[in-house]
Amino acid sequence: MKLRKNALAGIALAATAALGLAACGSNSGTPAASESASGEGITVYNAQHESLTKEWIDAFTKETGIKVTLRQGSDTEMSNQIIQEGAASPADVFLTENSPAMAQVENAGLFADVDKATVDQVPAEFRPSTNKWTGIAARSTVFVYDKNKISEDKLPKSMLDLANPEWKGKWAASPTGADFQAIVSALLELKGEAATEEWLKGMKKNFKAYKGNSTAMKAVNAGEVDGALIYHYYYYGDQAKTGENSKNVTPYYFKNQDPGAFLSVSGGGVLKSSKHAEDAQAFLKFITGKKGQEILKNGTSFEYAIASGVDANEKLVPIKELQAPTVDPAKLNSTKVTDMMTKAGLL
Questions:
Q1: I want to staple 25 with a disulfide (CB 3.0 to 4.6 A). Which of 58, 65, 310, 318 is the partner?
Q2: d(CA 219, CA 335)
Q3: What is the pLDDT of residues 23-70, one digit of tens each?
Q4: What single-letter DSSP state applies at residue 271?
Q5: Are strands 134-146 and 227-231 parallel, antiparallel or unpaired?
Q6: How confident is the model at residue 7 (pLDDT cuts 50, 70, 90)?
Q7: pTM for the full model?
Q8: Where does the pLDDT of residue 116 fall: very low under 50, low under 70, confident under 90, or very high at 90 and above?
Q9: Shortest CA distance to 268 belongs to which of 18, 53, 124, 68?
Q10: What is the DSSP string of 165-222?
């Protein structure tokens, strides 16, 4: 979706929202809205699952009366727009699926500090050390594989093994997406530039490219490729529906603090330039609070709830069993990663 279209759609949808709250949260793309004390409300630039954010908005507006206008885009699309807009950005809040886009905006000096009450709701491992933004959800890296083609004893012990010759032509990924680039960002932080460069070279020789994680999983399910490196929720989301795209697929968790056990943090932050900072901070506090995290837990995105003591959806592997490596989300470098992936011929 092009940014110009997003902007025009945001204006049109805000007008539609004035017709009434009953239209909010529908599949029509109408932003959730109601009147706040000031009558102005906040604007959220959203790269998270749109359905999840609309549920958050509906509940927040019902509780506070604060109007929320939603503008939807991808992680990189939205972060680049915020940086281009700078202090003139109409955005009050930025939500992402992965943390590198948050770090990009933070490095541009555009985030305000997160209120302490919100910081205190989120465990340290799920927010950057700088507290310029915070985690709002998480997703685990998994290797989904065709159980009819790969026996358990033949699974890779580490994500790094996928660069070895025996995996040539046997696995898939979607390298152009922010999801996969976040995984590579974690590899870079955990193992350094030389090891990451070597792994990307091996990946280029071995993998099959697909556009989108769900497409890569479908390819595994259809027998086109033996396995794929994706995030967990694509599998669980499909299983919760018909299961037709995952009936031959099994998710494998690397664990053991392996780079392939990376738990990517979805981020939320308040823009320093926000003209409605109090309301924006209240929204961030709400979605990381108990009510917001329970909406996440009980919803259809199948991401991990991470804050306010709310456990993950019961269908998911508990976070404590994932044995994820410790990564400071503030240090994930999307620009360096895309440069390295381009050099390796993956972008």
A1: 58
A2: 29
A3: 333 333 333 333 333 457 999 999 999 999 999 999 999 999 999 999
A4: B
A5: antiparallel
A6: very low
A7: 0.86
A8: very high
A9: 53
A10: GGGTTTEEE-TTSHHHHHHHHHHHHHH-HHHHHHHHHHHHHHEEE-SSHHHHHHHHHT
Query: Are residues 125 and 209 in contact, defined by beta-carbon separation less than 8 angstroms?
Result: no
Question: Would you say 182 and 141 are in contact if contact means Cβ atoms under 8 Å apart?
Answer: no
Give the integer Cα–Cα distance in Å for 167 and 148.
16
154 burial (CB, 10 Å; 0-12 / 13-18 / 19+) is exposed
What would the two tokens of residue 110 be?
């555009």
**Residue entry with tokens 């909406």:** 295
User: Rounded to whole angstroms, how far apart are CA atoms 307 and 294?
Assistant: 10
Query: How long is the chain?
Result: 347
Tokens representing 196 are 């990451």
Closest to 167 measured CA to CA, from 213, 254, 249, 227: 227
Backbone φ, ψ for residue 307 (5° rounding):
-125, 165
Whether the CB-CB separation of 80 and 89 falls below 8 Å is answered with no
Q: Is the per-residue pLDDT at 258 higher than 50?
A: yes
Cα atoms in the Cβ-side hemisphere of radius 13 Å centred on 268: 28
3-state secondary structure of 104: helix
Residue 216 CA to residue 222 CA, distance in Å, equals: 10
Cα–Cα distance measured from residue 283 to residue 187, given in angstroms and rounded to the nearest whole number = 32
